[in-house]
Write a structure and sequence with these properties.
By secondary structure, this protein is an alpha/beta fold. It has 14 helices and 25 strands. It folds into three domains: about 210 residues, FAD/NAD(P)-binding domain, CATH 3.50.50; about 150 residues, D-Amino Acid Oxidase, Chain A, domain 2; about 100 residues, Glutaredoxin, CATH 3.40.30.120. Helix 2 packs across helix 3. It is globular and about 70 Å long.
C-alpha cells in the first residue's frame, strides 16, 4: 500500500510528490495525459515559491532556466506612465526581488526530471475512475493505458486534477463563484520594438489591455489579453488577427510572428472542502481565479508544500490526524482572499464605459506613478504579488509574538545575515537572534530540533525580530511559535497542546 496517491502531474502534483518523497513518504503519481504540457498558460514564478524551492535545491536551477524580469512598465494610451523597478520594491524583503518568467511546460519537465532522480516516475495515460474511503485507507479504481482497470490502495488521496476535478465531484464539494464574461487569449510571439526589452509591460487602452512577459531571448514574449465584444461568443474560432490590437499598438511594438495562440474562459471559484476524510484537493481543483498577478500556479505549489509536511508528520506518527484539518483552514482562507483581490483588479482593468476608461487610462497611471515614490507603498505591493506577505496568523498552529513577528508569519529574511541558509532543509528548527538561553540547546537536543543562533544586529531589529527571542519554525519555514522569553517550558507546552512527538 502506498502512503499517498497523487492524481494529476501538473506543477502542484509534482511538487507534492517531490516534497513527500524527500521526507521519506511513499507516493504514486498518475496523470491521464500522454506527457507534460506542450504549451503553457502559467508563466510567473514568484519570490515566495523560489524561497521554498531552496528546500529541494531547486531555486537556482529554476532561475537559470527562466528569465528574471527586474522591472514592470505601465502604459496607457500609447505612453509609458510608470516604471516599477522591482528590486527597489523587494530587495530588502527576499533574496529573489524579481518576477521570474519560466513557462509552465518547461517548469513541469524540470520537476519530472527531479522526481525521476528520486526514483519516482509519473504514470501517464492513467486515470482515476472512482475511489472509496475505507477505515484506514482509500481504495482507488484506476484505468490503465491499455484500458484495463486496477485497484490502488493508499493511505491518502491528493486531488491535483485541475479545475474540472473528478475527485472534487466525487467528494461532493461545491465550487462556488462565477465565470468572467471576458475571454482571455494567450500568444507566444516574436516581437520587435519593445522598450525596454526584457521587462514586463502592461498596456491599458479604453477597455482593452495587454500584458507582455519577456522570455529574455530572441525577442520572444508572451502576450496576455482579453476579448470582450461579440467575438468572445465564438472564441474557439478566433485567431490572433481577430483580437483587439489597440493596447498592443500603444506599446509601439511589431508582432513579427505568432508561434502559438489560444483562448480560454476564466473562472473565479473556491471549493468549500479542501479535505474530506482521507481525500484532499489542491491547486486548480480547489481554487481558480483570474491570471492577474501571476498567482495561480504559485498558489497551487504553496498548497502542496503546506500539505506535504503535515501528511509526512501524520504518516510517521509524529502528529495526530487533526493536524491535517489545518490544511483547509490555512489554504482556504488564502484562496478566498486571493480570488477577491484578483477579481477586484481584473474588474478594474476590464471595466467598460466612459468614466471607467478615464479612471483606468488617465487617473490610475498618475496615481501609480506618485505612489511608487513611497517606499512603504512599493514594499506593500511587492509583498502582495510575490506572496511573501502571506501568513497563517489565524491558524490554530500559530502562537505568540516576539518583536513584530507573530506565529504564522513567514520568517523575515535578513540581507547579509544568511538566516535563510538553514531553511534549505525540511524540518522543524529554532532560530534565536542574539544569545540563546543555556537550557534552550538542551531542549532542542531532546526533541531533535536544530538550534540556529545569529549574532544580533540592527538589521534584525529592522525586519521586526526581537533580540534573544526564540522562533520555532515549521517544516514549511513559517513561524509556528514566537516566544520573547525563549522558554523551553513554552516550547514544550506548544508541542504537547497539539500532540506533536517530533523524535
Amino acid at each position: 500500500m502506498r502512503d499517498v496517491l497523487i492524481v494529476g502531474a501538473g506543477p502542484t502534483g509534482l511538487i507534492l510528490a517531490l516534497w513527500l518523497t524527500r521526507q521519506g513518504v511513499g507516493v504514486r503519481i498518475i496523470d491521464k495525459s500522454v506527457g507534460p504540457g506542450e504549451t503553457s498558460r502559467a508563466m510567473a514564478v514568484q519570490a515566495r515559491t523560489l524561497e521554498l524551492y531552496r528546500q529541494l535545491d531547486l531555486a537556482e536551477s529554476v532561475i537559470a532556466a527562466g528569465h528574471p524580469n527586474l522591472s514592470l512598465n505601465l502604459w496607457a494610451r500609447g505612453k509609458r506612465r510608470a516604471r516599477v523597478v522591482i528590486a527597489d520594491s523587494g530587495g530588502s524583503a527576499t533574496p529573489y526581488p524579481f518576477i521570474l518568467i519560466y513557462p509552465q511546460d518547461e517548469h513541469e519537465r524540470l520537476l519530472v526530471e527531479r522526481l525521476e532522480a528520486l526514483g519516482v516516475t509519473v504514470e501517464r495515460q492513467t486515470e482515476l475512475v472512482a475511489f472509496e474511503e475505507k477505515e484506514d485507507h482509500v481504495a482507488a479504481r484506476l484505468r490503465m493505458p491499455d484500458g484495463s482497470e486496477q485497484l490502488c490502495e493508499a493511505r491518502y488521496l491528493a486531488g491535483c486534477d485541475g479545475a474540472r476535478s473528478p475527485i472534487r465531484h466525487q467528494m461532493g464539494a461545491s465550487f462556488e463563484g462565477g465565470t468572467y464574461k471576458h475571454v482571455f487569449y494567450v500568444a507566444d510571439v516574436q516581437v520587435s520594438g519593445l522598450e525596454p526589452p526584457g521587462e514586463v509591460h502592461v498596456a491599458l487602452d479604453s477597455s482593452d489591455f495587454v500584458a507582455v512577459l519577456s522570455y529574455g531571448k530572441a525577442d520572444l514574449g508572451r502576450l496576455i489579453g482579453t476579448v470582450s465584444d461579440e467575438r468572445a461568443e465564438h472564441a474557439e474560432h478566433l485567431t490572433f488577427d481577430d483580437v483587439g490590437h489597440r493596447a498592443i499598438d500603444g506599446l509601439g511594438v511589431k508582432v513579427n510572428k505568432v508561434n502559438w495562440f489560444s483562448t480560454y474562459h476564466v473562472h473565479h471559484r473556491v471549493t468549500d472542502r479542501f479535505r474530506l476524510g482521507r481525500a484532499f484537493l489542491l491547486g486548480d481543483a480547489a481554487h481558480v481565479h483570474s491570471p492577474v498577478g501571476g498567482q495561480g500556479m504559485n498558489t497551487g505549489i504553496a498548497d502542496a508544500i503546506n500539505l506535504a509536511w503535515k501528511l509526512a508528520a501524520v504518516l510517521k506518527g509524529q502528529a495526530p490526524d487533526s493536524l491535517l484539518d489545518s490544511y483547509q483552514q490555512e489554504r482556504q482562507a488564502f484562496a478566498r482572499q486571493l480570488v477577491e483581490t484578483t477579481d477586484r483588479v481584473f474588474t478594474f482593468v476590464t471595466a467598460e464605459g466612459r468614466f471607467a476608461n478615464v479612471v483606468r487610462t488617465r487617473i490610475a497611471p498618475v496615481f501609480a506613478s506618485i505612489a511608487y515614490k513611497f517606499e512603504g507603498v512599493r514594499g506593500f505591493l511587492f509583498r502582495r504579488v510575490s506572496q511573501t506577505a502571506q501568513n497563517y496568523r489565524d491558524s490554530a498552529l500559530s502562537e505568540g509574538k516576539a518583536g513584530s513577528v507573530q506565529g504564522g508569519d513567514r520568517l523575515p529574511w535578513v540581507s547579509g545575515a544568511d538566516n535563510y541558509r538553514p531553511l534549505s532543509t525540511i524540518g522543524w528548527q529554532v532560530h534565536v537572534y542574539g544569545a540563546a538561553r543555556p537550557d534552550l540547546q538542551g531542549w532542542c537536543d531532546q526533541h531533535g530540533i536544530p538550534l540556529h543562533v545569529f549574532a544580533w544586529s540592527r538589521a534584525h531589529r529592522k525586519v521586526g525580530l526581537a533580540q534573544d527571542a526564540a522562533y520555532l519554525l515549521r517544516p514549511d519555514t513559517y513561524v509556528a511559535l514566537a516566544d520573547p522569553q525563549a522558554s523551553p517550558v513554552t516550547l514544550s507546552r506548544y508541542l504537547a497542546s497539539r500532540g506533536y512527538t517530533l523524535r
